[in-house]
Amino acid sequence: MGSRPWLRQQLVIGRDLVMRQIGFQVAFLTALVGTGIRFATLFGAGWWVVPTLFTSSAAVRHQVYLPDGASAGCGRGLSAFIGVRFVGMVARTRGGRWVVLGPVA
Q1: Local structure of residue 67 (DSSP, 8 states)
Q2: How far is it, in rounded angstroms, from Cα 57 to Cα 52?
Q3: Averaged pLDDT, groups of 10, the chain, 105 residues long
Q4: Helix, strand, coil shares of the chain as percentages rounded to 5?
Q5: Closest Cα partner for 66 from 80, 81, 54, 51?
Q6: How far is Cα 39 from Cα 43, in angstroms, rounded to an integer?
């Protein structure tokens, strides 16, 4: 590479860009996970705290919460939605439809 210093410079720049991208991804995922944990904590605390702000009756607070069947149904629906989106994404990325080369008309 002694006769091609520009190639070495391009490799150094490429390495720096990749490292910056990795650093950004780590920071983004850390912030995302941290936000998710904070939201889950607040949601979990609110699940018990908010109803007690409005009533002291245990019978009323018991009716506030979703029945087990309804929450399980929500979970199944969300899982089905995620599964359908995943199948569509895999089909799209295995084909060439997502690749756009050249100017877009």
Answers
A1: P
A2: 8
A3: 70 75 79 84 78 81 67 80 88 72 67
A4: 80, 0, 20
A5: 51
A6: 6
Please count the residues of the chain: 105
pLDDT in tens, 32-46: 888 888 888 887 777
pTM for this predicted structure: 0.36
pLDDT digits (tens, 9 = 90+) for 55-68: 888 877 777 665 66
* Two tokens, residue 52: 């007690």
Q: How far is CA 38 from CA 30, 35, 41, 49, in A?
A: 12, 5, 5, 16
